[in-house]
Amino acid sequence: MDRPPLNAAALRRALVRDGSLYREVDVVQRTGSTNSDLVARGAAGTAGEGTVLVAEEQTAGKGRLDRRWSAPARSGLFFSVLLRPAEVPVARWGWLPLLTGVAVASGLARAAGVDTALKWPNDLLVTVEGEERKAGGILAERAGEDGVVVGVGINVTLRADELPVPQAGSLALAGAVGTDRDPLLRAVLRALEEWYGRWRAAGGDPAACGLQEAYAAGCATLGRVVRAELPGDRAIVGEAVAVDGDGRLVIATEAGVREPVGAGDIVHLRPA
């Protein structure tokens, strides 16, 4: 079979164990959005921390800025995780999507053998025929007062004729040595568990747990000239020089101003 289904029982055996972050791993054949489903369960108190919801197909997958994410059934990894970081001040929760990006990139590098990079605030980039392409994305949403759902979408086996837009890519098109989704998902979730544990133990301090350094090392946006398209139809052009302690992208403009950007759409204008 070209795209075999995930083995839910094997995933549970590998991930749900004493002392693990993961308490429940559910695989559904089809849903609108794993994020929407898990946010509703988290807000209602019917799902605990470490609940993972995976869909073989999403019909209304969500990206940043209300964009839609679509892909053929079983062609990628579409999943969400409920986290309740009680030990971390809410002001530091903005690091969770960046943390997830670091975990996804490291897990995929290990299991798929693909060089991956992060575009701030959290697109996953791969190289296809010498060109930078988006192969995945991350979206974090609040779930009630004490929860955050982190959703991940990764194109795994999409062929060129299946890409939703020409700028998209997939692990297969990037030359992945492995596209079996079971080990890929296990590797990503284990990396997420490791980074989340380090970050939580440090009280969410991104420098103390090494997260800020790791994100900067894997971020393809830093060192490039970018255009930040901001709320209110405002835009900034300059060099992306740092990710600060709040997870914001710092842009140095030609006027000599360093402006931190906390939300917006970033366009890479030219390579570093």
Automatic annotation (TrEMBL):
Does the keyword field hold Ligase? yes
Naming one, the record's GO cellular component terms include: cytoplasm
Pfam families reported for this sequence? BPL_C, BPL_LplA_LipB
**Top-level taxon:** Bacteria
The coiled-coil regions, if any, are: none
A GO molecular function annotation here is: biotin--[biotin carboxyl-carrier protein] ligase activity
Keyword check for Ligase: yes
Q: What is its EC number?
A: 6.3.4.15
Ranges of residues in domain BPL/LPL catalytic: 10-200
Which UniProt keywords are present, listed alphabetically?
A: Biotin, Ligase
Among InterPro entries, the record links this protein to:
aa-tRNA-synth_II/BPL/LPL, Biotin_CoA_COase_ligase, BPL_C, BPL_LPL_catalytic
**Name by which UniProt lists this protein:** biotin--[biotin carboxyl-carrier protein] ligase
